[in-house]
Amino acid sequence: MATDKFLSCDQQNISSAFYSPTWLRLRRNLTYNILHTLRIKSFACARKWALDALINRLKSHSSSYEYHHTKIREHIQHALYSLFAFICFGEKLEDKKIQDIKDLQRRLQLSFDEFKVLNLFPSLGKFVFHKRWEKLRQLRQDQEKLMVPLIKARKENRKLEEKEIVALCSEFFTGGIDTTSTTLEWIMASLVKHPHIQDKLFKEIKGVVSDGEVEIKDGDLRKMPYLRAVILESLRRHPPSHFLIPHTVTKNVVLGGFLVPKNSIVIFIVVETGRNPNVWENPMEFKPERFLNNGDFDISGTKEIKMMPFGVGKRMCPAYRLAMLHLKYFVANLVWHFNFNCFGEGVDLTEKHEFTAVMQNPLEVQIAPRLYVQ
Ligand code: HEM
């Protein structure tokens, strides 16, 4: 599919129920600006804080040299909520506050399907689907109650209205956490299912990092092509979003001989693109090596579109670089600190659709600390 077909599309998402098209355009620019600043600031200390919390939680499930088992989804999610709360509010929040934010965001995200209809006819939908509109409004009020005090504490440096900042924070929590934590769980599942790949990754890390190092930082991550290949292969094989946000065609487009009329809604199927046997050899096989012989694989789809876990074109995920950094950081540090093994009957790759496409049976692992780190 040619990229220009993407360029003639625009997105429709739940925020349209709240905001005018002008504000939505502004919000996109704001998100870009904030993400640009984030990349520059890098938030290394936020990442380290979240990683420490994750490692401590996992350590409590593994004593010195013995194996213990745990489901890792809960721990990964907690770490990512800690990281994003730090990014949004600029401080290390206590566990209870992080749990409150998580509970609220989960309630919101798991109700998204119910709210989609409001977006189809924004002004009429509020009356016709009054109860759903009230539920959505209540959730936003709960968000404001929880986040405004945190924002007030930081407000002196910012020029936006508090309610606008709540919307942006919500955008970050909603867009950034489930996608990243689900991807992390799938990556760890593949590393547990294929111990030789975990070993190869560990060897790569060991070749770059000195023994006894407690944290692998950005500079080192850039020297690990196999790590990047593992992450890309997981995003191809298990993209957390199976579909893009619905797009609207802004002009008549002929695609494969069919006319897609202006204003029709188009759903792009991400998962099929990455598993297309005409493009990928043995697509269901987990084989990071396919990304090693590929030069610097272009995930943004600028030159060609072979997969699109972050979307493609002008509406692609504005945070894909930040997301790749988070994924590399957590995977490398986890594998550096612990050996992850299969627990019970093996890794079940069945998918289930929640807000993202998660593992139907959460990954349960045996973990043991590696000897290289104290
Ligand atoms: C593995 C991690 C991630 C994946 C796979 C992912 C994937 C996506 C996809 C597929 C879209 C829709 C693109 C389209 O419809 O064309 C999207 C949009 C978006 N993502 Fe991400 N994302 C990830 C991480 C993040 C993070 C960390 C943030 C924020 C910090 C974020 C913020 C957003 C926002 C704000 C949008 C909506 C953009 C718009 O309205 O145009 N995402 N993402």
TrEMBL record:
A GO term, aspect molecular function: heme binding
Gene Ontology cellular-component terms listed: membrane
Compartment(s): Membrane
Residues binding heme, per UniProt: 317
Keywords in alphabetical order: Heme, Iron, Membrane, Metal-binding, Monooxygenase, Oxidoreductase, Transmembrane, Transmembrane helix
Requisite cofactors: heme
InterPro entries: Cyt_P450, Cyt_P450_CS, Cyt_P450_E_grp-I, Cyt_P450_sf, Plant_metabolite_P450s
Main location: membrane
Membrane topology, as annotated: Single-pass membrane protein
Similarity comment text for this entry: Belongs to the cytochrome P450 family.
Protein name per its UniProtKB record: Cytochrome P450
Species of origin: Gossypium barbadense
